[in-house]
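Homework help board

Subject: predicted structure for assignment chain

Our instructor gave us this sequence and asked us to write out the predicted structure in token form, then describe one feature. I got the tokens but I'm not sure how to describe them. Can anyone check?
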Amino acid sequence: MDYYFINNDAVSLGGLNRRDGWIRYGLILTDGAMEYQEQFGQLSPGDIVLIYVKHLGVVAIGSVAGPWNDVADGSLVADGGSNDGTEHRIRVIWLKDFRDHPLSPEKLRLIIGWAPRQAVQRITKGLELIQGMVADLQRTLGREPPRRSE
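My token output:
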């Protein structure tokens, strides 16, 4: 199991708020260039994703529930639609919704020393702190914490 930041695509969508649709429908998605779609191929079921919104911070944490299968779906769920009428999706089980009180970029920098910049970014620096935070969430929810990566 790996841990990733997923950067919300608000900039390329002119500030549209996709994260609400993501959380409502239990998924993450992209409709951008192939380079962004292929980055989803890094994700595997059981991986933990932290949804990051530039200038706002972490708004949700979830567990990947299925693989990215490179199949576009024409039924749009993203707020604001897509570039070509399709979306590439990955199912997610949300563990925590922080939209009302995001973990700010400043606080994230204090906790792990950095904030994400890429669309899909594997967490290595500060990983143990993120793993501990997710394990605490799992215990609070009465679920078994994810096993730590070797």
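Reply (TA_rk): Your tokens look well-formed. For the description, you could write something like this. The chain has one domain: 3-140. That's the kind of observation they're looking for.
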